[in-house]
Structures are given as structure tokens and as C-alpha cells.
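Suppose a colleague, Dr. K., hands you the sequence of a protein chain of 142 amino acids and asks what its three-dimensional shape might be. Before reaching for any lab equipment, you can write down a predicted structure in C-alpha cell form. Begin with the sequence itself:
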Amino acid sequence: MQLVAQIARFILVGGSATIVNWLARFPLSLVMPFLEAVFVAYMIGMVVGFVLYRAFVFTASSQSLALQIALFLGVNAVGVVTVILTSHVLLRMVFPAIGFTFVPEASAHAGALAMGAAANFIGHKFVTFRAVRPQPSPTVGT
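The predicted structure, expressed as C-alpha cells, is then:
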């Protein structure tokens, strides 16, 4: 049951960071090309996500803050590449092939963000914010 509650918090917190990411791309697209705007928006959402995940989802982590940040960046390096590639493939290949024209950039970005949610949970739970259990001390024979 504790895992279900953690997943629910992850979805709420991750959803909030994803909304920040998605909304940030709109003004960024006014001053830079689409894929660069997706990248910068992802970085903004990543900062929001780290703070919120650490405060509300993965509170039992026994790793140092510096290690958490390094691992978070590593997990998200995979995530940002996935989001950029998926955004590009949806916008330039999939949507034109199926005739999808409803706000294509926003839809491609949203679809790409949705693709990474499960992978991010697994990466952050088992890598970034891992809670290392202390090893039991050996007992002297009786």
C-alpha cells in the first residue's frame, strides 16, 4: 500500500512539474526554435521536479544531496533525449503521416512528456532517491 501511495504522490508531483515544463515551452517557442524550446522547458520542469520529488515523494532517501542531484541529472539526461526525439518523431513523421493537425507542437510535446513518466518513476525510485537499508549487524553465535 505504501508503494501505491508513493506512485500517487509521484503522479501528482510529476504532473505538476510536467505542466510547468509543458507551459514553459509556449513562451520559449516565441524566441527559439521548437526543439530548443522543448529542451529549455524540460530543464525548467526538471528543477521543479527535483525539489518537489525530494520534498513529497522520495523523502526516505539516504543519499547525500550532491549524489541525489548527480543521479537526478543522469536519469533526466536519458529523459530529455527521449522527450526531444519523441517530440521530433511525432511532429515531423507521425502526425503528418496520419494527418493530425490539431496544435501539433503542443500535442507532440505533451505526448513525449507522457512517454517518460513510468521510466522516470523507476529511475528516481531505484537510482536517484534510493533508500539504502542498513545491513543487519552480525550476531555472535549463542
